[in-house]
Amino acid sequence: MNRSKCLLVLTAVLLAMPVGLFAAGQQDAAVADRDFTDNPWTDGQDLSGRRVDVFGAFVDEDARRFRESMRIFEEQTGIRVVYEGSGDFESLITVRVEGGSPPDMGAFPQPGLLGDFVAGGEVIDLNDWFSMDYLQQQYDQSWLDMATMDGIMSGFWHRANVKSLVWYPKGPFEERGYQIPETWDELIALSDQIVADGDVPWSIGIESAGATGWVGTDWIEDILLRTAPVEVYDAWTVGEHPFDSPEVRRAFEIMSDIWFNEDYVLGGTDAILLVPFGDAPNALFEDPPAAWLHRQASFIPAFFPEGAVVGEDVDFFYLPPIDEEFGSPVLGAGDIYGVFNDRPEVRALARFMTQGISTKAWVEAGGFVSPHADTPLDWYTTEADRRYAEIIRDADTFRFDGSDLMPGPVGAGSFWTEMVNYVNGKDLNAVLRDIDASWP
Questions:
Q1: Three-state SS letters, 58-119
Q2: Out of 3.40.1000.10, 3.20.20.100, 1.10.10.10, 3.40.190.10, which CATH number does the structure's domain 51-162+332-395 have?
């Protein structure tokens, strides 16, 4: 074939190539020409083409938003982050770790399970990867305390939610001239004023099928943080401080001042066990409100009537402190990421995820609160999310849901069932002794 025919054939082949294939070739060439060492996370190494596997419990929209939040890391490092979510996370992660094939990272909604792997020597101590100075720049000390298990930095936090909230019907509340309470005494005074005005202050419902009782455990935890040193709370969650103690007994008694006051609770105390927890806030939306106050976490708007707008139809305030000496603590929850494999690309992703930039896309999408100290408040696109973040940031102490830190037979067993028994009239001393007796 002569040179002119060769050129004609080559031209024909190029013209026949799909445009997308040609463009893909250009993109591959562009990627190949990129410098993947100029980023804050790989320590000057080119780690492009490698992958990190992350396994967690969140799925669907949350999984999509997580992947979006990883995009900036992937683009700047060339490392692929592969996320797998499963509603069966707890059992599957156990099978994989015990079977010798753990993911590179696990996103744990309950630190207690991560603690089991720490005890088994399966989790990498992040103290070996990051200096304490660095970690203290990225997180408030409370988050580092909660991640420290047996002296090991067991993981890093990447999502938070707030439980220390009281919800109220915004318009009617303001029309009545009620004021947001800033102390527990003011909260009780507000409850008394609502009763004096002929209404019922609190809507409380704890029915949750096989999990009935968990709502009550949150109340006890919130109150204990407000009436005892945080060291007592921490010891209590790991079985080193008994339920049958003056501190925990007082928390139950303070809760009882509200729960067992027939004038305070919609439907009376008997209704507490019958009303599903997701239906309890509905009383705030009636016209006029059937009740005025409801204590529940930042997830509860998902159960509000369709079209309800936080900040317009309903609003919230921080559950106020009780004893001044313990400041303004916050009870909450979140996702902690434990690391199982030590490779350069895994270290790079861990460094990225300990920085606020790793949450930016998710924060801006809404419904997400970052635990990172370097996440600016102006990234939040809703007033509610911004206020949740401020509550966490302003907390004197932040602690994880205590029942989630306890062994399953207690935190998801006797603590729940004895809360139910207590509401049904069981003696408090017997309740506390029986929970202690169930500790494995």
A1: CCHHHHHHHHHHHHHHHHHHCCEEEEEECCCHHHHHHHHHHCCCCCCEEEECCHHHHHHHHH
A2: 3.40.190.10
